[in-house]
Each structure stands twice: as structure tokens, then as C-alpha cells.
Amino acid sequence: MRKDRIIILYNRIAVFRTERGVSRRELAEAVGVNNQTIGYLERGDYKPSLELAMKIAAYFDVPIELLFSFRRFEPVADTLRRAAAAGEQPQ
Amino acid sequence: MTLLQRMDRLVYATRLDRIIFMKFQPRTFRWSPLFVIATLIAGYVMMAQITGLPDRSFFIGWLLFYGAFIVAAFLRVFGPRFTATAFHPLDERELMVKARAHASSGIVLAGFAMLGCFYMATAGMPGLWHPHMPNDWINLGFGLQALGLLLPTWIASWLEPQLATDEEG
Predict the structure, then answer these.
(1) Which of A36, A46, A51 minimises the CB distance to B167?
(2) Could you tell me the pTM of the whole model?
């Protein structure tokens, strides 16, 4: 299989989890999976079902596209730098 | 203390509760099933070579074969989770791993059975070994059962990504 045909699903679960101070175990219990599965999801070793992806998005109360994307997410530092340059107050 | 209470305490005293309630972290066995399969084959060959009364070689083969069978059962228990418990149901990833591991091992076992049929069809030719004693068939049955335990564990161990050092488990 050609490498460019492998579809990578990027996610920001670890970022949201760290920001909210939620452990893997807490998130796993909230969405009904094994906490190892959360670890595999964060590392991109496992692609979640639509149901699980929506449960995780609902847990963090964000739209699903903020958590999962086929394109690499912009690093948080770049987002903050851009916001600072535009004179916005990062939230 | 009633008999049931005594039995209950025995379960906890012998730490069987760790197995019954899956209180341990599942492990991946990526190479050990291959050694167990090799031991099963070696044990079977040693037992099958005997035509007369059992000798020392037969008993060594018997120990190797059934020892490997028991190890296969243990690897199944301590390997990737295939069985849900009341407190730990299988999640979607574990169900996916279980389905893929069993489907793949089913294909491999069916292939073995097919090749075995072709072999048996030619086994009447002189010089070709085939199971002819009841013991040979019984051991072959146990061997296939051990393969049925080992193959899903082995395949699932490769399907499971390795845990990173910072994983909470």
C-alpha cells in the first residue's frame, strides 16, 4: 500500500484533556472505553468510531472538528502567536 | 461460616479473583506463542514416533506437548482481552481486535485443515507418516485446540499497539 493512501486522523484529545485537567482514566470512564484505548487514540494508533468520537466531543463540549481532523492541527504556540500578533486576547 | 463463604474466601486467598475479575493488565505476547507452537510440534513428533510400548522419549514428548498446552491456556488468559467481565466490558477497540484476531486465525486453521486433508489423501503411500493410533488423533485434536487458543492471542498481540512508557495502563 502506498504511504500517501494511508489516511491519518489527527486529534487534539491530549491537548483538551490536559487543558481541562482530566486524566485518561476519567475520560475513559466518561465515554465508556478502556483507558488504554484513550492512550492509543491520543497517539493516533487507533481511529475511533463516529459514536466514540462524538462522545468525546460531547464530553469536552466542543464541535467534533475541533477534536479530529484529516489535516495536521496547528501547534498551540502558533495559534497563540498569531492571536497575539492580531491583538486578540487568547482565551 | 457457610460453605459458600469459605469458597469465596478461598478464591481471594488463592488470588484467583485477579483472573476471574480481570484485575490485571492484559499483556501482549508477540514471540512466545511461536515457541509454544514449536514445543507442541516437538512434543507431538516425539509421541508419534513410538509404535510399541511407551518409552522415555514418549513421556518427554507427552510432558512437552501437554506442558505447552497448559502454557497456551495461560497465554490466552493473560494476553489481549477477549472476554468481557461484569465490571470490564470490551470496548469498541478490543472488540475490533478480537474480531480480526479470530477471523485471521480461523483462516489459518482452515488452511491447515485443508492441507491436512490433501496430505491424508496421499498418506497411504509408503514412507509417509499419518496418524494411525487413537492416541495420535487425540493428541492432534488437543494440538488443534492449543493452536485455536494461541493464534488469536498471537495475532491480537501484533494488532495491539505497544504501550508507551508514560501510559497509565
Answers:
(1) A36
(2) 0.80
Across residues A32-45, what is the average pLDDT?
A: 90
Residue from the list B88, B91, B164 with its beta carbon closest to the beta carbon of A37? B91
Neighbouring residues of A80: CB distance < 8 A, sequence distance ≥ 6: A90
Distance from CA of A69 to the nearest CA of B (A): 20
B1-49: pLDDT as tens digits: 888 888 888 888 887 877 777 677 888 999 999 999 999 999 999 998 8
* Main-chain phi, psi angles of B43, to 5 degrees: -60, -40
CB contact under 8 A, B164 and A39: yes
Q: What are phi and psi of A4, to 5 degrees?
A: -75, -10
Chains A, B: CB contacts under 8 A, how many?
A: 36
What type of residue sits at position A52? L
Asked if A18 reaches chain B (Cβ–Cβ under 8 Å), the answer is no
Helix (H, G, I), strand (E, B) or coil at B98: helix
Strand partners, A11: A68
pLDDT in tens, B43-71: 999 998 887 788 888 999 999 999 999 99
Q: Which helix (H) or strand (E) holds B131?
A: none
Q: Which amino acid is at A75?
A: P
Q: Give dist(CA B45, CA B39) in Å, integer.
A: 10
Which of A32, A36, A40 has the CB atom closest to B169's CB atom? A36
How far, in Å, CA of B159 to CA of B165, rounded?
18
Sequence letter at residue B153: T
Residues in chain A: 91
